[in-house]
Design a protein that fits this description.
This protein has about 250 residues and is of the alpha+beta class. It has 4 helices and 10 strands, in the order E-H-E-E-H-E-E-H-E-E-E-E-E-H.
Length: about 250
């Protein structure tokens, strides 16, 4: 993902608003949902891991920006848009379900204490119904390895949080959401993927988090429930890691 990218927008999960959206019409849109799904978490490294690869090391802001997908690498027919960051704190019932969003109090504390850089970019489908399908790609770096237990906890609460109540911002609706596992690739040191949505209104918000030493890559997609986005999530997460490795 070589580029001369220079703009930075703080990544916020709430930026991709959880509202209904139309179907995708671009030529490279994901295929229909399959009936099978792998576990929500996967790991490609042993428990006792070494920080010995370039993408695992702390990065500069310039390196994070350069690893994000360019306009040419965005889905065909999609355009960049400016996401509005929110300072609101997400809430969930049960509170343990905040782990699905990687937004527990413990994670917030770690972010404040150890995050040293963050860059993100957002694209949306140019044509079609509204609100439009969207994708966000973010890369974050920390002054110490990102804790593995955050990913472990997210996978552990998936069953109990299959149905939970969440509110992203003060302006968003407080509603019940359905969470389910999605095929999660063995990318980086550890990965966690989940679909959170509302089948009754054909809304799906897919999340893929990837941990690689001091680095975390986040790819999110807002689409309809009938679509699977597994390959697209994997493509952009792996692309960021590949660029950070060079």
């Amino acid at each position: 993902m070589t580029r001369t990218w220079s703009r930075v927008a703080p990544f916020a999960i709430a930026a991709l608003a959880l509202t209904a959206c139309g179907g995708q019409t671009s030529a490279d849109a994901p295929t229909s949902a399959s009936s099978s799904a792998s576990a929500a978490t996967s790991s490609s490294t042993p428990t006792a891991e070494a920080i010995d690869r370039p993408e695992q090391e702390p990065k500069t802001l310039k390196q994070l920006e350069a690893a994000l997908p360019t306009r040419d690498e965005a889905p065909r027919g999609w355009v960049e848009f400016e996401a509005k960051p929110s300072e609101d704190t997400r809430t969930a019932e049960p509170a343990s379900c905040l782990a699905l969003y990687m937004d527990t109090p413990e994670q917030r504390t770690f972010e404040e204490a150890h995050k040293t850089g963050s860059a993100s970019v957002y694209y949306e489908q140019e044509d079609g119904d509204r609100p439009k399908p969207r994708i966000g790609v973010a890369a974050r770096t920390y002054d110490e390895p990102y804790p593995k237990e955050f990913f472990d906890t997210a996978g552990a609460v998936l069953d109990e949080c299959a149905n939970h109540i969440s509110q992203a911002t003060k302006e968003s609706s407080r509603a019940e959401w359905h969470a389910s596992s999605i095929p999660t690739p063995a990318v980086g040191d550890q990965s966690f993927g989940v679909r959170i949505g509302r089948p009754e209104v054909d809304l799906a918000h897919d999340y893929l988090w990837v941990r690689s030493g001091h680095t975390v890559v986040v790819v999110t997609m807002l689409t309809t429930y009938e679509l699977t986005n597994d390959e697209r999530l994997r493509k952009y997460a792996q692309g960021v890691l590949d660029d950070l490795a060079t």
